[in-house]
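Posted in: Structural Biology > Protein-Ligand Complexes

Title: Requesting predicted complex, adenosine-5'-diphosphate in pocket

I'd be grateful if someone could produce the 3D structure tokens for the following input. Sequence and ligand are given below.
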Amino acid sequence: MSRAAHLLAIDQGTTSSRALVFDPSARVLGLAQAEFPQSYPHPGWVEHDAEEIWRTVLKTARAAIRNAGLEAADIAAIGITNQRETTVLWDRATGRPIHNAIVWQDRRTAEACARLRADGAEPLVSATTGLLLDPYFSATKIAWLLDRIPGARAQAEAGRLAFGTIDSFLLWRLTSGAVHATDATNASRTLLLDLRTGTWSPEMLRLFRIPEAILPEVRDTAGLFGVTEPRCFGAAIAIRGIAGDQQAALAGQACFSPGMVKSTYGTGCFALMHTGDVPVASSNRLITTIATQLGGRRTYALEGAIFIAGAAVQWLRDGLGVIAHAAEAGALAEAADPAQEVTLVPAFVGLGAPYWDAEARGAIFGLTRGTTRAELARAALESVALQTRDLIEAMRADWGAGADTVLRVDGGMTASDWTMQFLADILGAPVDRPRVQETTALGAAFFAGLSAGLFGDQDAFARSWSLDRRFAPRMSEAERERRYARWRDAVQRTLSRGMRV
Ligand SMILES: Nc1ncnc2c1ncn2[C@@H]1O[C@H](COP(=O)(O)OP(=O)(O)O)[C@@H](O)[C@H]1O
Ligand SMILES: O=P(O)(O)OC[C@H](O)CO
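-- Reply #1 --
Done. Output follows.
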């Protein structure tokens, strides 16, 4: 085996940057993680300092290599995976961002989206991009920056600015400005990509008023993107894979066949169902996204995105102060009074799929004098499972009988056995937690490894997936449906005026 037989996965998430070194049998040899600050300049706005993101990525990547007892020469390739949609605009000459990154959770463009919707633009947007008019996606964030930063639009038109989602920005920095590219999975989150051709759509660029000169080149998910500037790691390393974090997790969970579903529970929750090489248009308010692009051939997924999952647990900890650590939430929920029916609808930043209500805000129902932190903790954990049920119902309605009845789960929140059991109960379906919990990073390493000739093909990789624990449903059907009906009622009461049915 040649010396350079390891893979470095850079996983740039919403709350932290992580880096992992894998050996060719997908074992983690080294890991490093660094949180970075979130900035909330106005209610509903969320920003990141892109320089801070860059610093934490470089620091954790170097530390992961060191912690593995390796050096740059041992790394065959880097795979990048990232929080998607988050928008950075930078100056091509200096490489400096012209503003903080606008994060996927940010709602500042809700009005702009509502206006486009009122103008009747949504059917064309959906047919072209597979997405909906929601502030979640990049296009209206780019337009906001171009319109609000003095001189930005003129500079963009003159080709002096570059746009990128986080993958693109990191690629630019790692290659010292030599490569301005993205992969098809990330590009499919911008509202600017034609889902079927994998190219930027002139109609969408016109609709959102985005100058083509700022856009990165769209490439395959696995392939040579460039090599790192030797100063980054002491020697140049090839960057051979890029994928949005949810698409990376879909691969890391070995969901390669149509009908297979994974759900990732981090800050938000993202359920993706592989639909093979056909983009399936949802009739149930899900979105259609590119799962991979390999050798120019695209595969697709149906996706349901929930904005608040683990973030509800963070709210218990940081907002309410009712727990000191996320891991305490499960035990507290277990101790809650079964007779109290408290429901939390965590619409802290609006509601994502299948409601897409940017104006809704969170609500709690069923409070009594007897309600304590335990019932609040249970309601927060339950809300994550109940929202997943909404997504799975929509997927089954779109995909029919071929939908897998088993849900593969990953992400920080799957550490909570209580939540996973409740999830199986409320879905009425088994929930499988794999042994390798780092599925997002593993997916990024898989794509890089595919291009570097390590890791074998998809089938070999799929055979290496192994189960940690299956949570089987235990709740009676009557109880499950009673609780789900209570949730549906609570959501109706939370939706903003005009969105209620
Ligand atoms: N034992 C636990 N019980 C419930 N929630 C948890 C637990 N451990 C972690 N979490 C939640 O999981 C999230 C972190 O997951 P992670 O996959 O690292 O997220 P991200 O990639 O979005 O930063 C946090 O929101 C945290 O509150
Ligand atoms: O950083 P995460 O894991 O919360 O994922 C963010 C998603 O990619 C947003 O679409």
